[in-house]
């Protein structure tokens, strides 16, 4: 029979885990990802560094837990899966893809820590971030596979369109946050500017599906 951990011990463990996860975020915001290390994280969390190994096995697993919690596609996995399961026709698929990208844009805009994680991803390659990117891609691929039949034998690539939109979201937000400047005359730092972007995301997805009806001519 497996022994149950006492209630107080469970509470203490959960509290310590939360302190350690939050410490990772605090360090990334204040000093950047290069400052992440066992000693620095333990110092920020005000706990023994031994607890990192006890509760997370190693520092990479702790950082991975933090990243998964902050990443839009991974932290909202259950909600996204639920939205996908409810798709039963083309219009619902278009609405779901558009809505998810719009929400990703708004989420990324508001999450400073996630912005720093993406900067980390494009600055250097690590096994930890590679695994996170892979899981994120798998999540998005479910929607793309559902869309593929609508673009069979079409010169239009929804995967190409989606890649441009996702990378564009990252660039727009990072550019606006860092330089406080406009992009194509749009002030992304204003609610009106962000509303224009979200409206355009919906239009682009709709246009892609409309254009997808055109099939390549066979010679």
Summarize the structure in short:
Helix 1 (7-31) crosses helix 8 and helix 7 packs antiparallel against helix 11 (191-211).
Give the topology.
Elements: H1 7-31, H2 38-45, H3 50-56, H4 59-70, H5 72-75, H6 77-85, H7 90-110, H8 112-123, H9 127-147, H10 158-179, H11 191-211
Helix pairs in contact: 1-2, 1-3, 1-4, 1-8, 7-10, 7-11, 10-11
Notes on the structure:
It is a single chain. By secondary structure, the chain is an all-alpha fold. The protein folds into two domains: 57 residues, Arc Repressor Mutant, subunit A (Orthogonal Bundle), CATH 1.10.10; 141 residues, Tetracycline Repressor, domain 2 (Orthogonal Bundle). It is 74% helix and 0% strand. The longest helix is centred in the N-terminal third of the chain and has 25 residues. It is globular and about 60 Å long. The mean pLDDT is 88.
Structure class: mainly alpha
| Alpha-carbon Rg, integer | 21 Å
Uncertain regions spanning at least 5 consecutive residues:
none
Query: Kindly, what is the distance between the CA atoms of the first and last residues, rounded to a whole number of angstroms?
Result: 70 Å
Shape, per Cα inertia axes: globular
Helicity level: over 70%
Count helical runs: 11
Give the number of DSSP strands.
0
> How many discrete structural domains?
2
Quick one: biggest sheet?
A: none
Q: What's the CATH architecture of the largest domain?
A: Orthogonal Bundle
- The sequence of SSEs as H and E is HHHHHHHHHHH
- Overall mean pLDDT score? 88
CATH topology of the largest domain: Tetracycline Repressor, domain 2
Task: Just give the CATH class of the largest domain.
Answer: Mainly Alpha
Instruction: Determine the strand fraction and express it as a percent band.
Output: under 5%
